[in-house]
Specification:
Length: 333
């Protein structure tokens, strides 16, 4: 029988055969590719990893004891199945801790650090594995904060800092009783990197606890930082007070004004250098309030002149000497 290659049936059979060959070739290629991309399928690969800067949990009654000598962190090396190590690092469901230190009590001790929460399939080693620590009775007290102003603060010419204030004046300090006994000063330092400062300084400062040698002490402070607000004002000047007679005199009486013996004769003002330069004295108006006998009274200094930002007093004490006129005496006779 003659084979007709141009027959439609033959062409279909040939097309199907070619398609089957192509499918088989592609399938074999894909299987090889998948196998080469997953070389560890069906096998457990061991691995090792090192984790640094792990916090150390201290097991002790922190209300009763204070512990010193514990390092800031530890390093741990893990060995075991790679898949478990990767999951361990990702979840961090483990801790590095001390044993129960409450049972040891006060004194110096060598303590082993242990890892808790690791899979049994993982081996671990911690560095340092042993720490030397000291346990002491804890003491807690409150201390007043003092402010130190850095002499290197660059103020603009004609400006100065007056009476800095704190967000809070007291801090709570806790530590070993032996260390707490060494506390000499608790301070914050006001500093600034700005140049030619003309505005108030607002700064966050670390609380420093010092002994008599100005050395920092190993104690816990709450809060650790406080805010400092330092008003920066213009130049100050001391000017004489001038008393001016106001209203309230009673007819038939004479009045004499003077500052009380305890009152300073000058007023210290802060403000713009030009405004201060124009002031030669400070006039305060005194209301006699219908007095008929000698009296000491408190008198407000009044509104400050334009350009003057602050004065060292809000009021002054004035002596008003009152005497009855002689003409009144004659008329009454």
């Amino acid at each position: 029988m003659k084979f007709d290659v141009d027959s439609p049936i033959v062409k279909r059979i040939v097309s199907v055969l070619i398609a089957l060959l192509l499918f088989t070739f592609v399938n074999i290629e894909n299987q090889g590719r998948f196998q080469s991309s997953s070389p560890t399928d069906g096998a457990s690969i061991n691995s090792s990893e090192t984790i640094s800067n792990l916090p150390i949990e201290i097991k002790i009654d922190t209300e009763k004891y204070f512990v010193s000598g514990i390092p800031d962190s530890a390093t741990m090396r893990l060995e075991g199945p790679q898949a478990i190590i990767f999951q361990t690092i990702a979840t961090q469901n483990f801790t590095i801790s001390t044993e129960d230190l409450n049972e040891l009590g006060p004194g110096t001790h060598s303590v082993e650090l242990v890892a808790e929460g690791l899979s049994n399939d993982i081996k671990s080693s911690i560095s340092p594995s042993i720490v030397n620590l000291t346990i002491e009775e804890k003491e807690v007290d409150e201390y007043q904060l003092d402010i130190e102003i850095d002499e290197e603060i660059d103020l603009a010419e004609g400006y100065e800092i007056i009476e800095p204030s704190l967000s809070q004046n007291m801090v709570t300090i806790s530590g070993a009783a032996s260390t707490m006994a060494k506390i000499d000063r608790v301070i914050v330092q006001l500093s600034s990197d700005e140049l030619a400062i003309k505005k108030d300084i607002l700064s966050s400062a670390q609380v420093l606890v010092l002994d008599t040698n100005e050395e920092l002490l190993n104690v816990n402070v709450s809060p650790q930082r406080v805010e400092i607000l330092a008003p920066v004002v213009r130049t100050k000047k001391s000017i004489p007070i001038v008393l001016e007679e106001g209203k309230g005199k009673v007819p038939g009486y004479s009045y004499k004004l003077s500052l009380s013996e305890d009152e300073e004769e000058n007023l210290i003002v802060h403000g713009d250098p030009e405004a201060i330069e124009e002031l030669s004295n400070y006039t305060i108006n005194v209301n006699f309030k219908g007095l008929t006998e000698t009296s000491l009274i408190k008198v407000p200094i009044g509104d400050l002149p334009e350009g003057i930002e602050e004065a060292d007093r809000k009021e002054i004490e004035v002596l008003i000497e009152v005497s009855k006129n002689e003409t009144n005496n004659l008329e009454s006779d």
